Amino acid sequence: MTEALLPREAEVVERIQESSTIFTLRLRMTDTEAHARYEFAPGQFNMLYLYGVGEVPISIVSDPEDDHLLDHTIRALGRVTDGLARLEAGARVGIRGPFGRGWPLAEARGRDVVLVTGGLGCAPVMSVINYVTKRRGEFGRLTIIQGVKHSDDLIWRTQYERWAALPQTQVLLAADVAGPGWHGAEGPVTVLFDQAEIDPERAVVMMCGPERMMQASAHLLLEQGIPAESLWLSLERNMQCAVGHCGHCQMGPHFVCKNGPVFSWPEISDLFGTPGF
Ligand SMILES: Cc1cc2nc3c(=O)[nH]c(=O)nc-3n(C[C@H](O)[C@H](O)[C@H](O)COP(=O)(O)OP(=O)(O)OC[C@H]3O[C@@H](n4cnc5c(N)ncnc54)[C@H](O)[C@@H]3O)c2cc1C
Ligand code: FES
Q: In terms of pTM, does the model score above 0.90?
């Protein structure tokens, strides 16, 4: 069996409850040498194995250059993620990775970064926000555009307030349904695009969330003059091997586990949103 298919053991160093269904598992491999060798890029993911239950792909949200603990922010919604939600510090899981191609951060350096996310604390985009806000001087304007179904779904409210206070940073929030005390817009995430200060020539756009939301956002941004090759999307598919062997994640000619999960718009636009893909 190749090393990429063999899970290593990792210890849960800490479990942080982010909201009623979202939690972060902070992991460290028990093999200290393997842990020290481990390198990843924002946007890549690990396969987390809950022993005896199953394995799921989860994005890595920690900073690649921090104290080297591996943070995974997870929504409990099924068999494996519900089980992972019950783990406490000291528990062990299997870990394989990192896998896939992450965000185009080298290309984005010196340019404006526009992040469009839908849903509950979209983990792949959180990794970019963390990365860019820690290296604010290396990037131009940062625009964070976040949509949620209900305003109560927005987790990390204080973080959004902190980011909005950073220099050259714009944070725009929308909720399909606005509850009491909501100061953001009401409607889908696309209602925010008119307020976003985006320079099409300088912007690199990175998106994650439900595919219909990403499709609508991509079309609007293209209409606003963003070049197709400046639009990047993180996709989710059912995954088993994560190394391009089993075909579970296949989307036309692409293996989302290996060629993605981050794709540029020209790479996938012909298949994106097509039933069956
Ligand atoms: C590259 C990649 C990165 C990911 N990163 C993260 C992450 O950082 N955090 C995180 O919480 N999740 C992430 N996911 C999604 C996560 O892998 C799934 O939620 C998980 O596999 C569900 O497994 P389960 O056994 O808990 O649920 P299951 O028992 O398999 O499913 C329970 C229910 O959820 C539905 N479901 C399963 N997967 C998804 C999905 N991807 N989207 C919506 N509904 C789904 C099923 O149809 C079913 O109704 C990522 C997925 C991919 C492909
Ligand atoms: S998960 Fe097996 S080919 Fe992608």
A: yes
